[in-house]
Structure formats: C-alpha cells, structure tokens
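Request:
You are asked to prepare a plain-text protein record giving the amino acid sequence and the backbone structure tokens, at your earliest convenience.
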Amino acid sequence: MGLPIIGETIQFFSPHRLYDVPPFMKHRMARYGSLFRTSLVGQKIVVSTDPEINYDLFQQENKSVILHYIESFIAVLGQQSLLNQHGVVHKYLRNLIPRLVGPANLKEELLNDINNHTLKHLRSWAISGIVDFKEAASDMIFEYFAEKMMSYDESKNPRKLKENYNAFIHGLLAFPLNIPGTAFSACLKGRKNVTKVIKDTLKERRSRVSKSTHHDFLDDLLEEIENEDAMMNETIAEELVFMLLFASHETTSTSLTFLVKFISNNPKVLSELTEEHEAILRNRDNSGEYFETITWDEYKSMTFTHMVVNETVRLANTVPVIFRKAVKDIKNNGKFRNIFVQTQFFLKKKWVHFCQEYPNVHQT
C-alpha cells in the first residue's frame, strides 16, 4: 500500500482533470477492481467504487459507520466543523441551515434577491470582454452569501475575505506539508484569517449595548447562542459560518461552470431552454403585466430548466469522495462478505472507508 507512513499519498494528490476519474482511482480500479485498500497520510483506507457496497454502507449510517475525514482534512476544516459532527449535534446544525436557504426563504426572499444580484453581474460581464466564468461566478456567489450570512461587503472591507478563501480552497486538497511556501501552509493561513474576521464580527455584535439587527444568518446564530437550551456556542457558530460560506460559493460556482459547458456542448438543450424562457416572456406580454424579477409561479413552471439543473448536479459531482469510518466490524451475507473473504480483510474498527462516485462508474 505504498511507502511507509505516507503510503500512496503523493499519487492520490497528483493533479488531474476535474471532469474525469483521477489516475489514482483509474489505475487501481483496473488492477484491483471496485474495492481495494490503500494508505493515505498515515491512515489505512478501504476504497469502494461499487454502488451496491456503497448503498449497503449508507444503510448502516451511525450504526456501523460514521461520517469521518482524515486528520489533515480535520486540521483544515476544524474540530467543530459541521462535517466533523455526529448524531444529535449534526442533526441540530443541519436543521439551522434551512433558515438561510430553505424552501420558505427561497420563495419569500432568495428568488428575487438572487435574480437581481445575478442580473447586476451579467450586465457587468457583458462589457468586460473575456470573462473567466468560474472565477466570476465564484465572486458573484461569494458576494451574495457573505452579505446574507454576516452582512459582509468585500468592497468595503480591507481584510479581503475572498482572497483568503481562495488560498484555503487551493490548498485544501494539497499534500499536507505545513511549511512556509506550500499550498497547504497557505491554506491554513487563509483559514485562520477568515475565521478571525468571523470571530471579530460575532464578538462585535455581542458586545453592543443596543442589539441592532442585521437580519442575516449570524443574527439567527446569536439568538441560538443566547438560548440556554440550545447546543450552540461561539466556536460552533464561527465554524458553521465558515463552512457554509465555503460550500455555498465554491460548489455552486463549480456546478454553474459545468452547466455552461454541458449546455454549450448540447445545442438541442440550449434551444429547448431558450424556448421555455421565451415562453415565460411571451406570457408576460400577453397578460399586459411586467415583472422586474421572476415570480414564484414562473420559477415553478421551468420544468425543463429544473431537469437540466438536476442532470448537471448528477454529472458534475462537486463532492466526488465521501469518507466513513467503521466503528465496529462490518459483515454482510451477500456480495459484501464474499468480496472481503476473497481479499482476506474486513472493514475493521478505526479503518476508514472511502466511497468514490463518478458518473461513468456509478450511474443513477
């Protein structure tokens, strides 16, 4: 399973094309099949690309396996991160997220806000000549959600949160070598700087004599902190804002980039999308009404648009790997057991299971 201590870490972190199976996976799948062992950054890991095994494991969530990340990820993401929580705490934190992006909020506020925010950036891109779409989309989404989460305006703040997030993102999957000049070191520094901005904002609001409201997600978290019966504290609140701001702009901008690529490669899809949206405009003309933004009924009528979005999310998997840790020995009477008997090992306690899903490996 590779070199002592580091195992196959170097091969795992080798650069590769985003929309492709990494060479690390491709070579080992060809040699060992859909289930094999490896060692990454000092941890033994079982890798599965088998949809049946993965399905069985997910049925044992919080029973035989729990959510888990390798130690270098936890060092970057934080011990109090949503991704590092289990059971009741994880459920509690997940239930807070709909206050920001839940269906009710989407209908009442987000739909109009996002539409107006997007139109503003589209007009800016139209006069900018060549646009790096991934970067421009990332900036657009970050600007919006930073405002919604903590009333942060990048253009008026000298600490440049987005630049530090970029450093964090670029080093997140880098080789975990924490020495000056490495991407991983810059990642940790970027994370520290972002966390300080969030921490300072939270502290400033709590220290105010008059509790003025910003009507943002951080205000909701402050209410939870003041609630003695809640599990929230300042550290968890800081980590939650950090993780949601990272996830909202990075994964969404990546999906949008793939969406543009897929549509540009499929003229028929572009034609049908155009027809669906032009039909909405024709209905507005026929009714004699003019709307500056999209109405909820119009949004719900975009059947083909929703299909394209769902297919993009399926194909452009922004989270291609999922980690789980076995908390007890795992046995199964079917295919699961036969494979382990043949390969002479089981998923033992403290071993990590690494579910890998790619469009051309696991079709749904």
Notes: The chain has a mean pLDDT of 80. Residues 329 and 348 are 5 Å apart (CA to CA). The first strand starts at residue 35 and ends at 40.
